[in-house]
Amino acid sequence: MKKITIKEHIVNYAKSKYYFHINELKKYFAKKEIEYKKDTLKKNLYLLKKGNLIYAAGRGWYSTIKEEFKLDANPVKKVITLIKEKFPLLEFSCWSTEQIKGFFHHLPSQFVTFVHAEKDFLQSLKDFLLDNGYNVYLNPYKIEAEKYLDLKSKTVVLRPSISSREPKHQCLAKIEKIIVDLFMENKKINIIDIEEYNKIVSNIVLNYRINMAEMLDYAHNRKIKSKIQSVITKFT
Question: What pLDDT digit, counting tens, does each position of 120-150 carry?
Fold first, then answer.
């Protein structure tokens, strides 16, 4: 009987996975009592990536999904340009629920734009955006949101920045950050319910490849890594 190679073992393991971490693969090998050398494992993972049988999904992570997620920047281009012209040295990130509208199960009647910037600049940002016709809220929470947050056209919510792996002056937030931020916004202002959130995330990560390591690092910084992992493991 022909001996199954390490490469074949990896392929057999990966074919039922959308994403997997190398440590999960090692646990699988241990459970199946598959012997391997560390260098051999890394070499075969490299060869499988080179052969487009698996794809990189962040530090230690791999995916069988070929197409990488591409975010539509158009819904936030105007507000990003406006802020950059007024505050050229300000480090901020911006995203909108409109950028992920194609993944909603129930499309909202109005979209919300979120801008994360240094806490001391938020009031100046609010005043500036109000002067430019935006409906702006400075760091609202659930009780406040229930009282006065009106989700109408050109609504912007301002939040203090949270450390992430995105490069400085990366004004356009990446999908990995958006997934985590959206979870937090559901807790803070309840823009969608958890079932809708789960559907949005599953629609994204099961159809397009994201950087799982980057998303979980940011979730760790926001102190919700275990909660995001719980959401992801439900469908991956």
Answer: 999 999 999 999 999 999 999 877 767 777 7
Contact present, 184 and 191 (Cβ < 8 Å): no
CA angle 64, 70, 76 (to 5 degrees): 155
Q: What is the pTM of this model?
A: 0.92
In terms of Cα–Cα distance, which of 151, 179, 152, 153 is closest to 164?
179
User: Is residue 165 located within the same domain as residue 48?
Assistant: no
Answer whether residue 120 is part of any domain. Answer: yes
Judged against a pLDDT cut of 60, whether residue 175 lies above it is answered with yes
Q: How far apart are CA 200 and CA 114, in angstroms?
A: 17
Pairs from 231-234 (Cβ < 8 Å, separation ≥ 24):
231/183, 231/197, 231/198, 231/201, 232/19, 232/201, 232/205, 234/198, 234/202
190 and 85 in a common domain: yes
Give the Cα separation of 203 and 220 in Å (integer): 23
Q: Are residues 59 and 121 in the same domain?
A: no
d(CA 25, CA 92): 37
